[in-house]
Every structure is written in C-alpha cells, then in structure tokens.
Specification:
It is a single chain. This protein is α/β, with parallel strands linked by helices and about 350 residues long. It has three domains: about 100 residues, no CATH class; about 80 residues, no CATH class; about 150 residues, Rossmann fold (3-Layer(aba) Sandwich). Helices cover about 35% and strands about 25% of the residues. It is built from eleven helices and 15 strands. Strands 3-2-1-5-4 form a five-stranded antiparallel sheet. The chain is elongated.
Length: about 350
C-alpha cells in the first residue's frame, strides 16, 4: 500500500474507532518550501503523526493547529510564511508561503467508508475528487465524487451533485468565494518492472518509496513473490510474451527492462518502445544497446521508437551495488515525473 493510501486508510480507522484526529493538506504554496504540493498530514489526539508537510518546526506548529481543530470540531485555514530570516532560524534554505486546510476526521461508519473509498481508489489507480466545506456550523460537510457516483456527509445541494465544479488544478485548492476545499486524487503513476533479480528488487523498493504503483513481472516464482518484494502493488508470474499480451500502456506508465538476459530484454523493448508509455528504459551498457538495437531494427521496430528508449538508465552517481542502482534509476524516473526533463 502506498504512503498516501495508508494515510487515508488510517483516517478511516480513526473514524471507525471514533478516535479523534485531524487532517492537514496543502491548499496553496508559493516560493521554495520544504514540502510537496500534494503534502498531507494526519494528526491524532495524542499528537502522533502520519505523513508529512515538511518536518521541523513548521510541522510542530501545524500539529498544534491540528489539535486546535480537533478541539473545535470545525475546519480552519492556516497560513505560514517562511521568509529568509525565519527560514534561517529554522535551519532551512528556503522561503515562501504555504496555506493549509485543516479538518477534523469525521467519526462514524459513513465517514470511514468515504476515507476507505479514497484509499481504495489510490490502490486501484482510479481518479476521485474530494470536496470539503469550510463551514461546519450545521455539521460536517464532505463529499466524494467517484465517476458518476457520490458519497456525501452532510447536506449538499442537488445542483452541485448533478454538476460539480470540475477541478481546474491537479492539486488541492481552497476557493474563498464558495468556501469549498477541492482535493483531486489523481491516478498514481505505474512503474512496470520486467525482471525480479537483485537490481529489480531494489528498483521496486525505491519506486514504492516514491509512491509509484509498482508492478513486477518475472517468469520465476522463486524470484517474483511477496516475500522478496512485499512493497510491490502487483506481482505477475508469467512468461514475458504472455504478460505483455495482457498489458495496455498509457502516458502515466514507466517501463523498465532488467531481465536476466539480452533476449528477454529485447522482447520487452520490442513490445514497448513504440507505446504511449512516458518512459521506457533498459538496464545495460551502450554496447548492449547497439547490439540489441540492430537486431530490433531488423525485426521491424522503427528507429524513432528505439531512440526514445533510455539506455543506460539512471542518474550518473557512480552507482555500483543493487541498492545504489535502484536509487539512481528512480532518481531519473522521479525527475521526469516531476519536471518533465
């Protein structure tokens, strides 16, 4: 389970147990700040935290604000500014402004079902949108849109449910004109790893840690199993041609070939080079690439398709061990995901 899904699942567990807790979510950020644009934090009544909105003194302040929200039982907005002096005092080389939406975790089975649905959608790679009203004077007000289906807590106008405001931002945002916090939950990018050897396992580990939906494919069950790769979302034990037959790739897929042999890597590249996948890469040297590319061109794979395949893969950090290679490869993949470079 990804870290983001685990956080929503923890909110569901708190709701079911009627254990007091609060969520803090980045609603807007400007400048250079020590948190992701989709950062989220769960704080329980004891001050225990799951997730992060940046760490350090900032997170301590937000934890205190979350405890205040638990006490009042109503959402709130909080703004934090890190100018150069404040950032220096905190030991941070950054500065900017972040606005956070803080809300109590709603107790009860209906709320737990809503939080669970978000966690399940993340695991299933389906898009949902969560809407939360700032005004809870008439009770908690939260809604989840899942395709044409709705889960609602509180009173929501039928006109809104019939035609909700479509999110204009890929990240969460608070609209002061409507008093509505809109949180799109995008589909998690998928990393499909062909090969469950030592390097493959470490790439899978690093990919899971960076919130990719990790799929590991290998024809050897003694290598591709839950004991060796507990952090993979899916493990497919199947011969590569059959596995590729059942695979549909799109623009948020990342493909890596790191099988135990050149011929098997060639099968993966032949079937994925011209796909819509955002990234296709192969573990190996430039010499290996030239040998395989000649054979693949003879087999009919267009040179333009082969030219977009990354070989060797990974940032040049002098990686040598499987663990180091896993970090180097995922550094390259994350850079592409976050910056497009």
């Amino acid at each position: 389970m990804s870290a983001r899904a685990a956080l929503w699942r923890a909110a569901a567990e708190a709701a079911r147990a009627r254990r007091q807790a609060a969520l803090a979510t980045v609603a807007r950020r400007r400048g250079s700040l020590p948190m992701a644009s989709d950062a989220k934090l769960l704080v329980d009544i004891s001050g225990q935290r799951l997730g992060t909105i940046g760490g350090g003194c900032l997170e301590a302040d937000v934890t205190a604000e979350a405890l205040e929200v638990i006490a009042t039982g109503r959402p709130a907005l909080a703004r934090h500014t890190l100018n150069a002096d404040v950032a220096g005092d905190l030991g941070l080389s950054c500065g900017g402004t972040v606005e956070l939406f803080l809300e109590p975790v709603i107790a009860g089975g209906e709320a737990a079902a809503l939080y669970d649905t978000v966690a399940e959608s993340i695991g299933a790679r389906t898009r949902v949108t969560v809407f939360t009203a700032l005004d809870w004077s008439q009770g908690p007000s939260k809604a989840l849109q899942h395709g044409t289906h709705w889960l609602t807590l509180g009173d929501w106008p039928t006109t809104f449910l019939a035609s909700p405001t479509s999110p204009t931002s890929p990240t969460a945002v608070f609209d002061s004109s409507t008093g509505l916090f809109t949180e799109p939950i995008p589909r998690v990018p998928r990393l499909i790893l062909f090969g469950a050897g030592h390097v493959g396992v470490e790439i899978a580990r690093a990919a899971a840690a960076t919130d990719f939906h990790v799929v590991v494919v290998d024809d050897r069950d003694e290598f591709a199993n839950r004991e060796r790769i507990p952090y993979a979302a899916e493990i497919v034990v199947r011969d590569l041609p059959t596995a590729l037959d059942g695979l549909t790739l799109d623009q948020d897929d990342y493909v890596i070939a790191c099988t135990r042999g050149h011929a098997m890597d060639a099968v993966v590249i032949e079937r994925t080079a011209a796909s819509p996948a955002r990234y296709v890469g192969m573990l190996g040297s430039r010499r290996k690439r030239e040998v395989l590319w000649q054979a693949l061109e003879i087999a009919g794979v267009p040179r333009a398709a082969l030219d977009r395949v990354k070989v060797p893969i990974g940032e040049d950090i002098g990686a040598d061990t499987p663990g180091e290679i896993g970090i180097a490869v995922m550094a390259e993949v994350v850079r592409l995901r976050r910056t497009g470079a």
